[in-house]
Amino acid sequence: MGNLPNSLDNEILELCKQGKKLSAIKLLCETTGMGLKESKDYVDRLALKHGAASTEDKEGCFVATACYGDYNSLEVLLLRNYRDEKLLTTFIGSIFVKLYYTFSPYIAQQLDKSDKLKQFVRVYFLKPIVHNIEQNNFKQKV
User: 60, 79, 103, 131: least CB-packed within 10 angstroms?
Assistant: First the structure.
């Protein structure tokens, strides 16, 4: 895909196949010195080209997944559905989502380093958002 060694591409692809996209992005950043956004874009293109893109690659909810520990937890599903059915239907919401995907892989990497930080974000940030979505009668499609 680029001027990277095949062994690095293979390692990135293997991580993607294992559902460890964040680890693949981190590996690329640390190995090459690429920026976070450039690394994420490279990993996305490489995975797509080689059929290693997972559902998570297409719909990632990085921060919530890192905090809840499960891409398919009810809270993460609710947040993804809210993103798709509410946020992405408005101009401002679409801009917010684009900004989120610019910064969230890095934030999720930092969260992965601390269970206490995950708990803090889950309790004081995500839980109120999830509660607010539920209170406004936004029902998830599970």
Answer: 131
Q: Are 18 and 6 in contact (CB under 8 A)?
A: no
Residue 107 confidence (pLDDT): 93
Indicate if the alpha-carbon torsion angle 113, 117, 118, 121 is positive or negative: negative
The position carrying tokens 């293979």 is 10
Residue appearing with tokens 């993607």: 16
Distances (CA, A) of 33 to 13, 44, 52, 69, 83: 19, 17, 23, 28, 32
Give the pLDDT score at 46. 87
Q: Is residue 46 within 8 Å of residue 53, measured between CB atoms?
A: no
State the CB neighbour count (10 A cutoff) for residue 90: 11
Spans of all domains in the chain: 6-57, 60-135
Instruction: List, for residues 48-106, the tens digit of each pLDDT value.
Output: 788 776 544 445 689 999 999 887 788 887 898 888 889 999 999 999 999 998 899 99
